[in-house]
């Protein structure tokens, strides 16, 4: 039985691998030294705990703020969701939704979304993922709590492939997100739009065709296998500074 978001049988890899991923993503050698004080490097195969996840993300956020390497300076960047049905490339609005994108990118870099299933799939509406428990009720932000909405009148659910944070009310999003199958203006200014699909619409087509049960849950599980961060403006700025 899945007891919690972190304390379940899904394994995020050894702490050493997590350390490597964070350092590679950030491009900051100082980050490595700081995280090593938190991690016990010889604890191979240990399940990624909530305490350690929060600690790692806190360290990353600290260095980003101290080094003035904020995602607001990144403008736009992209990631690819490698799913069981193919790849979906997403452009992120880092300039317009800095906190949401900071949270999303840190979760991507830590492997948090790896093996997350698409737990809700409604034809002509949207497909939802980002919950490690697979229940639709789990997931958390890098800060260990909900994120304040970053609503923008210029960002609307006006096309197929809009990427938004999921929540159950104002300022309740954490890690779950959805991708629209069509325009839905009724969602505007209710959910934070933080990106859009720029490649992989064929994969989105295949997702929409997946057979679901009465609760819109895919009969055959489809999942995110891995996330690739294409642009690394944080490392680039650190190199050029």
Automatic annotation (TrEMBL):
Recorded family membership: Belongs to the cyclophilin-type PPIase family. PPIL3 subfamily.
Coiled coil: none
Domain PPIase cyclophilin-type stretches: 82-229
Role description: PPIases accelerate the folding of proteins. It catalyzes the cis-trans isomerization of proline imidic peptide bonds in oligopeptides.
Pfam family, one: Pro_isomerase
GO cellular component term, pick one: catalytic step 2 spliceosome
EC number of the protein: 5.2.1.8
InterPro entries per the UniProt record, alphabetical: Cyclophilin-like_dom_sf (IPR029000), Cyclophilin-type_PPIase_CS (IPR020892), Cyclophilin-type_PPIase_dom (IPR002130), Cyclophilin_A-like (IPR044666)
GO annotation, biological process: protein folding
SUPFAM superfamilies (alphabetical): Cyclophilin-like
Keywords: Isomerase, Membrane, Rotamase, Transmembrane, Transmembrane helix
GO function term, MF aspect, one: peptidyl-prolyl cis-trans isomerase activity
Lineage: Eukaryota, Metazoa, Ecdysozoa, Nematoda, Chromadorea
Segments passing through the bilayer: 47-64
Catalytic activity of the protein: [protein]-peptidylproline (omega=180) = [protein]-peptidylproline (omega=0)
Top EC group: isomerase
UniProt name for this protein: Peptidyl-prolyl cis-trans isomerase
Signal peptide: none
Highest taxon of source: Eukaryota
PANTHER family in the record: PEPTIDYL-PROLYL CIS-TRANS ISOMERASE-LIKE 3, PEPTIDYL-PROLYL CIS-TRANS ISOMERASE-RELATED
């Amino acid at each position: 039985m899945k007891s919690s978001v972190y304390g379940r049988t899904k394994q995020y890899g050894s702490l050493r691998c997590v350390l490597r991923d964070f350092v590679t993503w950030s491009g900051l050698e100082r980050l490595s030294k700081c995280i090593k004080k938190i991690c016990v490097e010889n604890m191979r195969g240990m399940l990624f705990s909530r305490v350690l996840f929060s600690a790692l993300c806190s360290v990353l956020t600290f260095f980003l703020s101290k080094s003035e390497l904020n995602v607001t300076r990144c403008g736009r960047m992209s990631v690819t969701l490698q799913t069981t049905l193919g790849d979906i490339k997403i452009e992120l609005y880092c300039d317009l939704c800095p906190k949401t994108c900071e949270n999303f990118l840190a979760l991507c870099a830590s492997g948090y979304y790896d093996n997350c299933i698409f737990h809700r799939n409604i034809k002509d509406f949207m497909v939802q993922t980002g919950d490690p428990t697979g229940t639709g009720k789990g997931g958390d932000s890098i800060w260990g709590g909900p994120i304040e909405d970053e609503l923008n009148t210029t960002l609307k659910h006006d096309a197929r492939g809009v990427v938004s944070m999921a929540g159950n009310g104002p300022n309740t999003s954490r890690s779950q997100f959805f991708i629209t199958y069509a325009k839905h203006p009724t969602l505007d200014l209710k959910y934070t739009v933080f990106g859009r699909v720029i490649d992989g619409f064929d994969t989105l087509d295949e997702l929409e065709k997946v057979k679901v049960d009465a609760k819109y849950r895919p009969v055959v599980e489809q999942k995110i296998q891995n996330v690739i961060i294409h642009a690394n403006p944080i490392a680039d700025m650190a190199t050029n500074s």
